[in-house]
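It is worth pausing here to work through a concrete case rather than discussing structure prediction in the abstract. The textbook approach is simple: state the sequence, then state the predicted structure, then interpret. We follow exactly that order.
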Amino acid sequence: MTKLDFSAINKSSAQSFHSHKNIIKKIGRGETVLCSTCQQPLTLITAQKGQPNLIPGIRCKKGCTNIELEFAM
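Step two, the predicted structure:
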């Protein structure tokens, strides 16, 4: 049986997680963060009662960046 090496995948996943975590922290502090693709500002969309189809997250206007967030109400 061959042993699979997931170290490259794990490293990439960890880098992505930490990058998203830092973006969320900066936006939470009120800093302006630009999308790495289109250079548009990222905006925080929060969960709102009465709008169940609205998916909370952090996005740019073009949709290049889309970080979905889970909120407890």
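Step three, interpretation. Residues 57 and 68 are 4 Å apart (CA to CA). The helical segments are 7-28.
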